[in-house]
Amino acid sequence: MAKTERFPDIPAPKAERRPVETSHHGITRVDDYAWLRAQNWQQVFRDPSTLAADIRAHLDTENAYQAAMMGDTEALQKALFSEMRGRIKEDDSSVPMPDGPYAYGTSFKTGGQQPRFFRTPREGGAHDMLLDGDAEAEGKTYFRLGSADHSPDHARLLWGYDDKGSEFYDLKVRDLETGADLPDRIADTGGVGVWAAGNDGFFYTRLDENHRPSKVLFHRLGTDAGADRLVHEETDPGFFMNVGGTRTQDWVFVAINDHETSEYHVLPASDPSATPKCVRARETGVQYDLEEGGDIFFVLTNIGGAKDFKVMTAPVSDPSEANWRELIAHEQGRLILSIMAFRDFLVRLERKDGLPRLVVYERETGEEHVVAFEEEAYSLGLVGSLEYDTDTIRFAYSSMTTPSQVFDYNMRTRERVLRKTQEVPSGHNPDDYVTRRLMAPSHDGTLVPVSLLYRRDTPLDGSAPCLLYGYGSYGIAIPASFNTNCLSLVDRGFIYAIAHVRGGKDKGYAWYEDGKRDRKANTFEDFVAAGRYLAAENFTAPGRVVAQGGSAGGMLMGAVANMAPDLFGGIIAEVPFVDVLETMLDDTLPLTPPEWPEWGNPIISADDYRTIAAYSPYDNVGAKAYPPILALAGLTDPRVTYWEPAKWVARLRDRKAGDNPVLLRINMEAGHAGASGRFSRLEEIAYAYAFALRVMGRD
């Protein structure tokens, strides 16, 4: 579509060119827009006011431009926001989860943006409000709660918050009898802590200046945080680290991993002074997770070529690999995603034939049974339990037409009790909609699952616009779950589709491996193939597809824009990872070293350099007739730094052919996850959907 047909004729900002030349492996690159990266980016994440004046001026100009270009959609945005808000039960509350004498849950109040944490007596009764997120957020332009975990004796609450969007969390401790926070306050954490069994302190991760969790420390209540005991330090910047507990509250786990290798250290929760014991030293390509099971650990691992994982056991007295024993064998094509242990049962969430299911294993007899559903495509999540000695677990189910349902399931009797069904206050009739699961042939003949949602009265003659969503990295599968927001598009005649491309684990671990490193191009080919297949089958037509993806999915958007611009009528790239080569060449950035197993290391490998250079969206922008493009970003984003989309947009405008607009909307007060409040986030979604409707002429 020509710009004048759908958008005002307003001159776009033109970023100044300040060429910077770099060379690697004998290859020279010139980056005209490298100056958009703030030299003091670490400081900007902590204090956005320190952003250089020339960069801020450019970003402000971009925001003014996108506001002007989208100005006449304001009424549509408000209508979309109202619709989406109308589908949310504003005073919603979770089903409280039992733990000892209490049951714990979260709730929202009417008009509230932030969650509130509460508890009730175990058998029911009045809510005791433990933490009010709206009250804590008052007066802050950005606020996001981290975890909120009660102590084993139920006397205190450990909670975290981020008030800049940079994901540096502060941890505080609340006295649940008085409602007051203790003087203890820990800055620059990962936002999660684990209580010691003695209730007098907690373990947490400390982030370094490059936003890496490099240390696990123990803080004893009432002491100076500067004197906190160092429990474990990770010196390899290529590994993530986090700390976790167990339902029995017997152990503390220090988990260290990158995208293909893992290592665990364990110590008794009753002895914070203990030296953590390494279970199995890291070995490239070997992954394992631990789950406590009384006198044994359950080990979910790919060791021994178990690509789709198997379950082993190890005695807690000596859990070294020599004592691992196989419990559940590897089965190719059945990917075990996670396990959860209880006194008498072991539950595993797995994916088989592309669909999730729960399997309950009885520890005494070895018998097992499956909990599954019959729809073509659905989402299944294991909520579990806060308690170890229980026969009851909780799981959540939904599909693209079925609102979320929360069930309590008795593993012994196999009785299923519906505890909650997601309410849609404005109304929702599942019979008005159709959900489908298609298989689109990719460039190499591989069949790519595609989940669809559309109104039953939508014409399937190629005239319908389609929003095609994709991700395809890190082994993350996008579930075919209920999404009230996309109904605003579907009710306006859109087909909403999810392309389950390679790079996720939708069809097993091999599906992930086939979409990473030197096979990354399969991810992009799969997405384009899904769009072309939907057009060939008359669900939509070329030029009627709006592509959407975020983060690594935003990288997908940039890649397919370069590969097949004719297929798309618009592209929405949220916090897009588009400057892949430059980011992977910079080992000072927060996530670069841990990302090398996913993308390759172009610093040391010329082959990796060439592979990434061949698809990196920023490096492959050309003189092509790109469709209208919307990029969304956050100034304090430590995952996909703001300058990646800013540079990409500048280069697109400089090199593209045609008049289609390229818009950049950057939230100057938020990070990777966008606006923090639930309604503020809806405003961002309404904006993106207004763009989709605009480019498809449905506004």
From TrEMBL:
It comes from the Bacteria. It holds the Pfam family Peptidase_S9_N. Keywords: Hydrolase, Protease, Serine protease. Gene3D superfamilies: alpha/beta hydrolase, Prolyl oligopeptidase, N-terminal domain. Residues 17-421 form the Peptidase S9A N-terminal domain. The keyword Nucleus does not apply. GO terms for biological process: proteolysis. Residues 481-697 form the Peptidase S9 prolyl oligopeptidase catalytic domain. GO terms for molecular function: serine-type endopeptidase activity. Residues 1-24 are annotated as: Disordered. Belongs to the peptidase S9A family. This is Prolyl oligopeptidase family serine peptidase. It comes from Nitratireductor arenosus. The lineage of its organism: Bacteria, Pseudomonadati, Pseudomonadota, Alphaproteobacteria, Hyphomicrobiales.
